[in-house]
Hints:
Elements: E1 19-24, H1 28-45, E2 50-55, H2 61-68, E3 77-82, H3 92-100, E4 106-112, H4 119-126, E5 131-134, H5 143-153, E6 157-158, H6 160-170, H7 174-186, E7 192-193, H8 195-202, H9 209-218, H10 222-234, H11 239-259, H12 266-273, H13 280-286, H14 292-310, H15 316-329
Parallel strand pairs: 1-4, 1-5, 2-3, 3-4, 6-7
Amino acid sequence: MSDEPGMLGAVEQGRSFGCSLLVTGPESLLAERAVADFVERALAERPDAAVNRLEAANLDAGALAEATGGSLFASASIVVLNDLASLPEQLNDQLLAQAGNPGPDLALAIVHGGGVKGKGLLDRLKKLRPELVDCQSLKPWNLPQFVNAEVRRAKGRADTAACEAMVDAVGTDLRALAAAVRQLLDDSAERTITEAAVRRYFGGRAEVTGFAVADDTMAGNGEGALGKLRWALATGVAPVQVTSALSSSLRGLGKYLDGRDLRLSDPDLAKLAGVPPWKLKDLSRLSRDWKPGGVAQAIQAVAVADAQIKGAASDPGFALEQAVLKVISYRGRR
Length: 334
């Protein structure tokens, strides 16, 4: 650990007590895991420690001092401070002093969910050189690697095709992907996930119909899209998940159309389009029936439906059906 002033909160050789952890970024699943690992490590170090979970917005100077100073029943404290951005400004210096020098009986984890609010305090905390875990949202092309890591974390096996199929079926939400991995591994005696198992297990399920609606809509399959849309809404899929899937598909196609003539490599074109590389074949096929002008009009139609839904439209299902039909009508338009 550094002997420089203000550096006492830095981590030394995997220790938790006498150290601070700073977790940043919007991906809540990764942030929760980082905090859980820190707490587990601290409890292994001091099993008698008290664990205190605090919401920054509810704190005052006395509550912060009490939580970080031990208790009558435990001399050691593990403190998790959530939502740093909402910490009252008058507590900034107190928290900085505590994070910079936690003392031998405190393990301190601080969580900032990303964004500009509270960034000044966040930057000052970073200068103390705590253990830092950055939990940014994953790029689409990194999601199969996430699935593979989840499988290995659960001591299972899956090949690349199965991981890609999982993302294709379930979507980009990390919690949904992690849950899907657990479900499939639990259902496999060999704890192995195959592409066929993914297709069989998730085909037509409520969790994936938002993406299925988008796929049929983009392909011009109105009957299939409307049928899956009604199924989705009947089985509890939120209307905004459908507009999100439609918008994501259209924007990816629009970026592909803009970049396909730039002579980019497939990985670079995939990054430009914001899609995994294996999606390029799908976009190439769709590009035969879509023009940039039609994509732009379709995006606008979906935005209107999204605004209607979020504005408490009396019939979200009708708004979505109209959006699906409008998007299909823009195929082939310039």
